[in-house]
Amino acid sequence: MVAVQQEKNGRIRILTAARTLFDSHGFHQTAMAELAVAAQVSVGQIYRLFKSKGDIIEALVHDDADQWCREMAEIQARLDSDELTIDETFEQLLLHTIDEKDEALSFDILAESFRNPAVADTIGSMCQRFRTFIRYFACAANDKLSGEALDAAEEMILACLFGLGHRSVSRPRLSASNAVHRTAQMIVTALRGVR
């Protein structure tokens, strides 16, 4: 039991250190020895828990996806209980994305997905999980959406989430709160306009 807890704690420390180092130094520029020092584990322990840095990236994506899906389920429950309007629902959805603190890491992970099929599959699976919630929210805005129109709505919303999550490099003019509010309004207006 103690060994299992130590392994879990080591995994958490490795992923926490990896998130920080990969975000500040880059995925490829971070040496395993540097990661071991930051996580306060041995290089051997890293390799017992993860086969490679690619496996660490996959674990980070899985952890983030699990957390984000829990948050989207909470947003959905709040919408279903009439605690949130559909506009507020999209604001909450976008707020999570725009508040992304690991923007550089996110870019690095996306770049790695083009080189590493396993990372690409992990991101694809993550997006598939998100699509279920996105479709639900789109239909809450317009219950007549179906088929290709619903597929297009899903793609548009997913693109907005990705784009807003990486907006700092575009030197935005709006504050995060204004961007979220206006974008949510535009998404809901667009969804309601589809016949």
TrEMBL record:
Which key words are in the record? DNA-binding, Transcription, Transcription regulation
The keyword Nucleus belongs to this UniProt entry's keyword annotation:
no
Q: Where is the HTH tetR-type domain?
A: 8-68
Q: Name one Pfam family in it.
A: TetR_N
Q: Which SUPFAM superfamilies match?
A: Homeodomain-like, Tetracyclin repressor-like, C-terminal domain
Q: Which GO terms describe its molecular function?
A: DNA-binding transcription factor activity; transcription cis-regulatory region binding
Which superkingdom? Bacteria
DNA-binding region listed in the record: 31-50
Q: Which InterPro entries match?
A: Homeodomain-like_sf, HTH-type_TetR-like_transc_reg, HTH_TetR, Tet_transcr_reg_TetR-rel_C_sf
Q: What is the name of this protein? A: TetR/AcrR family transcriptional regulator
